Amino acid sequence: MNIMNFCSNGRSGRNLKNEERLIKILVADLEDLNSYISELMAAIPLAVYTVNAAGIIIDGNEALAELTGHPLEELLGESSHKLFAEEAEAKNIERETAEKGYVTERELTAFTKGGEKIPVCISTRARVNDSGTMSYVTCLTDITEHKQTEEKLREFYELERKERIKLEREEEQRLQFINALAHEIKTPLTSIVASGGLLLEELKGEAQSPRVRLVENIISATNKLEARLSELLDIAKMGSLSFKLNLELLDIRPLLQKVASELLPVATEQGQSLTVDIPLSVPMVKADGQRLEQVLLNLLTNAIKFTGEGGKIQLRLTRKGNELVVEVKDNGPGITKEEQTRIFKPYYRIEADRQRFSGLGLGLALSKQLMELHGGKIWVQSGLGKGSTFAFSLPIAEPEENATRPHPERRASNLSNGESS
Ligand code: ADP
Question: pTM for the whole thing?
């Protein structure tokens, strides 16, 4: 409706003036909005441009000129695809935008006027104006720094991978060497023990002869040497990938009985009592029997070794929640709070014990690692002059595994030295 129509429709001159005033305000607002958008486009650090349906750049901002090195006037009227090294991919993105309405965060390489290639991230949105004309607004981000960081990270990962493979190979070679060395030493030791055994047989009739004691000493010292060698071998293997537990569903009560029975004569020889307190039935655990035996043997041997003559040693098995707890209690010299954390470190031995007892200080460190590999814990409760209780815990196997257990309800047999239940 034009001004003449207003007049002929009988509008008054005052109404007409009002309409004109409103139109002026609207035009001023539009100009304001336009300049606001232009300032915004100039201020944002992202390169933005608009192309028409034929892919020709019809608008762009300063950041685009900065990124490409082309003055804006040079870019207007040019095909946007030519800005990119991957021209075909740029066309694809435009096609996809026409279909979907938008495309976000695709990576392309932009050419600069100077021939430099810049990695960019591109997001595009389709726009249809009032008259139905299609255009595409595109936003480009320079991702050079991001790419450089990514490349550096990739290089680091590659370096780390190569180093790890190298270390694993060296570790494997080291273990192979230690294994071969241990084997070389163990073979003659085995024959010394075997020959000693035969010699003892020969000397059967001379029980009181000093020669018998000498041969027994040779056998016992050789056995100790072999045990130390095994400890060293274990500690070397422990950190390596090749070390694996042989897990099986286990009733640990017979294992505890066996180790206690084996050590009973040793305790008796020192005038010590060894009592065993094992419940009639306990749930099964998932454990490596041989390794558990090794841990228990170490704790009991230590208790016997450090408690001295007339000592009292107790082995106890209890269930605490979802765990089984094995305790080895002695009334020996006890260990100070300070020493209690140190003794679980490899090669650590309490100063006063170094001269008096043999050992490498590896038993507790090995036991700790073995228990942790089982998902359990090992600890000590002690105080100087108050004896020590070494204990380890093992998680009980899942209920469904326990449901398929055999029939372990065998009553624990008594040990001859001391009471048991
Ligand atoms: P080793 O027995 O070969 O010395 P361990 O790692 O088994 O090595 O023990 C480390 C140290 O912890 C021992 O040398 C000893 O000083 C101390 N220790 C271990 N068990 C006991 C115990 N039952 N009573 C007192 N001290 C102990």
Answer: 0.60
